[in-house]
Amino acid sequence: VKGINGLDKVVLRDPRGSSAEVYLYGAHVTSWKNDHGEEMLFVSSKAIFKPPKPIRGGIPICFPQFSNLGPLEAHGFARNKFWSIDNNPPPLQTNTSSKTFVDLILKPSEEDTRVWPHSYEYRLRVAVGPAGELSLTSRVRNTNADGKPFSFTFAYHTYFSVSDISEVRVEGLETLDYLDNLQSRARFTEQGDALTFESEVDKIYLSTPSKIAILDHEKKRTFVVRKEGLPDAVVWNPWDKRAKAISDFGDEEYKYMLCVEAAAIEKPITLKPGEEWRGRLELSAVPSSYCSGQ
Ligand code: TA6
Prior knowledge:
By secondary structure, the chain is mainly beta. It has one domain (7-291): Beta-galactosidase, Chain A, domain 5 (Distorted Sandwich), CATH 2.70.98.10. Helix content is 4%, strand content 40%. The strands form 3 sheets. Strands 4, 9, 10, 12, 13, 14, 17 and 18 form an 8-stranded antiparallel β-sheet that branches. The chain has an 8-stranded antiparallel β-sheet with strand order 5-6-7-8-19-16-15-11, with no helix packed on it. Strand 1 (9-13) and strand 2 form a beta hairpin. 6-O-phosphono-beta-D-tagatofuranose (TA6) binds next to strand 17 and strand 18.
């Protein structure tokens, strides 16, 4: 169906009530609702749904470069390319039988290979499951004919919707090493308590557990992030000052979002021709009472 500014989007509806929306522009998930119709993802009221600007919010795909860690545009080009629906994807060895899903594909045009001189097939499956969970499975295959390997960094740059950032806690990243983007990516070690937020944060946590929880006290909701093939996790909130400098982001919106991003950054993924990498993200939202003591 048509989304904002006539851009094509796919709407996934699980019979039990949850839903998701995916724009072909960027293969960008812009909505994930639970079975009560409540939105779980943050999208800025100032988001510009117009190429070449990536959509501010939802789940931007950062590929083949996270941030400005290389020569490409920030966060790579996948988030501002038009993807296609993949009607005949190779089978995916994961349990999506009881899920509602769509498969998208990105392949480089000739012009794209001038920017990044590699041939690849990037397949993304977006699925909503019976318990209202949202899963994204990326498969990147090196199809270079010249025998050359390539390397990339990656993130699912997920913007979670929260009721009040100062009431949010993140569990699962305690005592881990991180690179602080606000301090020239110097390496530090996190203290032992759950993370809380009272100022700008932009950190890359290294070699994180496969499960991270985001507790929203006010909403009595916990987001559970599960990830595979994605060792790192970025935590970002621009806070007030930086928010003002981002043109497609409201001055006060930092209060209502938190990015927790499943990523592969510290050790880039390298693929030889014919090799494939998988990176999977599964998000669920559960009442906080379920998670007490986590
Ligand atoms: O993931 C954190 C980060 O890399 C921050 O440094 C911040 O710039 C943010 O992403 C947003 O980037 P964008 O290019 O979407 O404005």
